[in-house]
Amino acid sequence: MVEMDVQGITLDPLSNMPVLVLKGKETNDILTIWIGVFEANSIAMYLECMTYPRPLTYDLINNIIESLSSTVDSVNIHTLKDNTYYASIILKDSYGNKVEIDARPSDAVNIALRSGCPIYVSEEVLNQVKNSNDKTEIDEEDIKEWIESLKPEDFEKNIEF
Q1: Cα(149)–Cα(143) distance, rounded to whole angstroms?
Q2: Alpha carbons 139 and 57: distance in angstroms, whole number
Q3: What is the pTM of this model?
Q4: pLDDT digits (tens, 9 = 90+) for 48-81
Q5: Which residues pair with 102 in a beta bridge?
């Protein structure tokens, strides 16, 4: 598993859909996942340090986990099947027992951000994405250049809070 950081949210110029951008914490791996507007808004609000007087959905989920004397141990994006990513949220209770919960990557990342747990992507998923990109002849340097050229304003376009 490769630990990843949330690089940000951007919009696909063709579909106008939000794209979650993850980057390897200690590698040059980049993973882009098309996600829903509501999940993207929630990630963007967190990244912009926006706070609200009452807990929003992902804050509520973290509050429930904490009130049950548990923590979010990690988030794992482990499978790519038919262009759909699959993730798990790993919870740990006060006795050290771990429970794996199936989740969409966008929900798992939202919970990871709020709990401060690491986000991992399996090497198998990263290799599938690399192989897929090789087939479509997307230049890795072009992607890196595009990621590095992103500005904070790019993440705000067409995403309403």
Answers
A1: 10
A2: 38
A3: 0.79
A4: 999 889 999 999 999 999 999 999 999 999 999 9
A5: 88
Cα–Cα distance for residue pair 111/76, rounded to 1 Å: 12
Residue 141: pLDDT band with limits 50, 70, 90: confident
Structure tokens at 154: 């790019």
DSSP string for 48-75 = TT---SS--HHHHHHHHHHHTTEEEEEE
For residue 34, pLDDT beyond 90: yes
Is the pLDDT score of 137 beyond 70? no
- Note whether 29 and 20 are within 8 A (CB): no
Helices (H), the chain: 37-47, 57-67, 105-115, 123-135, 140-149, 152-156
Q: How many residues does the chain have?
A: 161
The torsion region of residue 96 among left (phi > 0), alpha (psi -120 to 50) and beta comes to left
